[in-house]
């Protein structure tokens, strides 16, 4: 035989007729004026956070449910922000994928057009080309000196 599941009871934190409900209704009236446009969930979170700023949702979810208020993480975050307990965060920008045509337009050219002129003289990439040649020349000099050093070491060993 299958074992019977035992129902676990949640302790009643407050009732609609109890003292907590009356306190909440009185506080709600003041909070509505203070935080115009906020939902009941956010207002309830503000109410609870003013009592204890370290509270988390599980600490007062049952009380909110008994009052008919749905509380979620977003409401708690908004309440913390309203109270200055949490700094406002910017939404991360979404990355848009650029098409080849969009990238060409952003670079100032369309399909089939030559690259946009750069450099002080207006030559197409001439400055970039000359810089690259100089870097390659410097790298060749360093390589040549290393080969010379290795040749001297080999001569000494033999």
Concise structural overview:
The protein is built from six helices and no strands. With 158 residues, it is an all-alpha fold. The chain starts with 18 loop residues before the first helix and ends with a helix.
Globally, the shape reads elongated
Helix tally?
6
Structural class: mainly alpha
What series of H and E elements makes up the topology? Answer: HHHHHH
Strand tally, please? 0
Rg, rounded, reads 35 Å
Round the mean pLDDT to the nearest integer and report it.
Answer: 76
Unreliable stretches:
6-16
Largest sheet: none
Helical content, roughly?
55-70%
The rounded distance between the terminal residues' Cα atoms is 91 Å
Share of residues in strands: under 5%
Give the SSE map:
Layout: H1 19-34, H2 40-51, H3 57-66, H4 73-83, H5 100-106, H6 126-157
Helix pairs in contact: 1-2, 2-4
What does this structure look like?
- The protein is an all-alpha fold.
- Helices cover 56% and strands 0% of the residues.
- The chain has helices at residues 19-34, 40-51, 57-66, 73-83, 100-106, 126-157.
Question: Could you name the key traits of this structure?
Answer:
158 residues, mainly alpha, 6 helices, 56% helix, 0% strand
């Amino acid at each position: 035989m299958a074992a019977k599941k035992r129902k676990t009871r949640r302790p009643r934190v407050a009732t609609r007729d109890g003292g907590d409900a009356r306190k909440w209704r009185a506080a709600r009236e003041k909070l509505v004026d203070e935080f115009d446009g906020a939902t009941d969930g956010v207002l309830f979170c503000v109410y609870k956070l003013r009592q204890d700023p370290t509270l988390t949702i599980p600490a007062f979810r049952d009380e909110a449910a008994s009052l008919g208020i749905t509380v979620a993480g977003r409401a708690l975050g908004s309440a913390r922000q309203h109270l200055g307990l949490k700094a406002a965060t910017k939404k991360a920008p979404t990355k848009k994928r650029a098409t080849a045509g969009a990238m060409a337009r952003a670079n100032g050219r369309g399909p089939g057009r030559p690259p946009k002129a750069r450099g002080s003289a207006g030559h197409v990439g001439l400055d970039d080309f000359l810089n690259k040649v100089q870097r390659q020349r410097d790298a060749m000099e360093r390589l040549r000196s290393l080969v010379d050093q290795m040749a001297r070491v080999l001569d000494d060993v033999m």
